TrEMBL record:
<feature type="domain" description="NmrA-like">
    <location>
        <begin position="4"/>
        <end position="302"/>
    </location>
</feature>
<dbReference type="InterPro" id="IPR045312">
    <property type="entry name" value="PCBER-like"/>
</dbReference>
<dbReference type="InterPro" id="IPR036291">
    <property type="entry name" value="NAD(P)-bd_dom_sf"/>
</dbReference>
<dbReference type="GO" id="GO:0016491">
    <property type="term" value="F:oxidoreductase activity"/>
</dbReference>
<dbReference type="InterPro" id="IPR051609">
    <property type="entry name" value="NmrA/Isoflavone_reductase-like"/>
</dbReference>
<protein>
    <submittedName>
        <fullName>NAD-binding protein</fullName>
    </submittedName>
</protein>
<dbReference type="Pfam" id="PF05368">
    <property type="entry name" value="NmrA"/>
</dbReference>
<keyword id="KW-0521">NADP</keyword>
<dbReference type="InterPro" id="IPR008030">
    <property type="entry name" value="NmrA-like"/>
</dbReference>
<keyword id="KW-0560">Oxidoreductase</keyword>
Length: 310
């Protein structure tokens, strides 16, 4: 891959997309283009992108038509990090990117390793993986585990960021001894800038991670840096399974949430060990590829999180 690539990012103002843009710009090796909805072109965060010499191209993923091909002109790499509701439209983006001569398409993954039949959202992403391979465009699939930013909750229920956050966080399923992998949002972009410039990652699956811990270990870290004592809410695996089934019947965001929790706190899908297995996609370990990158650990994040008023 050439050192100076032109990279188009969908979802550039979201959490993951913004991190990716930051990583690309900080590396100084890429021309960065952000695909922005027409209705958002004058928003402060888009204006800020312009001041950082990010080219803005308008594209509405809720109304994709033949004109979308114009967005891909002169682009080497496409990175999709838009909201999850736009997952299906990626097929149209892939077709247009292929026709425009895009070399690599990185689809909207950015989550936890899994296998089919466990999480509906993963299954939808796997369909996109199949389509990419069928079309024959170059790709890199990238997962990042859980965000380290959701590993901890405020030290007191009265300070929770949304209703139910505190109790959801202190719920331990089973023994709380199943490990899960985490990545700081800010580190995602650092990894991505290296990944897309690395020929070893072409047509491969890469797993980025900063730390691994069980729910009980996270509790211990929280108590260490908050100075408080958290009383866990115990839940059996059978109780969680019933909640998952109920959420599937209802659908929507809660279905995704409970399937995620069952996947990483009960099944234990979200580990680097699993990600490397053939049934999970035979991932390359980003920390082995780039040992000089020092991602933030859970303890480092907790020290800052509980050191602030929260």
């Amino acid at each position: 891959m050439a050192n100076e690539q032109t990279v188009l990012v969908f979802g550039a103002t979201g959490n993951t997309g913004a991190s990716i843009v930051n990583g690309l710009l900080d590396s100084g090796r890429f021309k960065v283009i952000a695909a922005i909805r027409p209705a958002s072109k004058d928003k402060p965060e888009v204006i800020q992108l312009r001041t950082r010499r990010v080219e803005i191209r308008l594209a509405d993923l809720n109304a994709v038509d033949d004109t979308i091909s114009e967005v891909f002109q002169g682009v080497d790499v496409v990175i999709s990090a838009a909201e999850w509701k736009t997952l299906p439209v990626q097929k149209q983006l892939i077709d247009a990117a292929k026709q425009a001569g895009v070399k690599i398409f990185i689809p909207n993954d950015w989550a936890t390793p899994c296998v089919r039949g466990v999480r509906k959202l993963y299954d939808e992403k796997a369909v996109i993986h199949d389509y990419i391979k069928e079309v024959g465009i170059g790709y890199t699939f990238v997962d990042v585990g859980m965000w380290i930013q959701v590993a901890f909750a405020p030290a007191e229920k009265s300070k929770e960021k949304y209703p139910g956050q505190f109790d959801l966080w202190r719920t331990i399923i089973g023994k709380g001894d199943v490990k899960s992998a985490f990545t700081d949002i800010a580190d995602i972009g650092v990894f991505v800038a290296r990944i897309i410039a690395d020929p070893r990652t072409l047509n491969e699956y890469v797993f980025c991670w900063g730390d691994e811990a069980t729910k009980q270990e996270i509790f211990n870290i929280a108590e260490k840096f908050s100075g408080g004592k958290f009383e866990p809410i115990r839940m059996t695996i059978e109780e969680k399974e019933k909640i998952v089934e109920k959420s599937r019947a209802e659908g929507g965001v809660m279905e995704a949430l409970h399937e995620y929790e069952y996947s990483y706190w009960v099944r234990g899908d979200n580990t680097i060990e699993n990600a490397k297995k053939p049934e999970y996609g035979s991932a390359l370990d980003a920390r082995e590829l780039y040992p000089d990158i020092k991602p933030r650990s859970l303890e480092e994040y907790a020290r800052e999180f509980y050191g602030k008023a929260n």
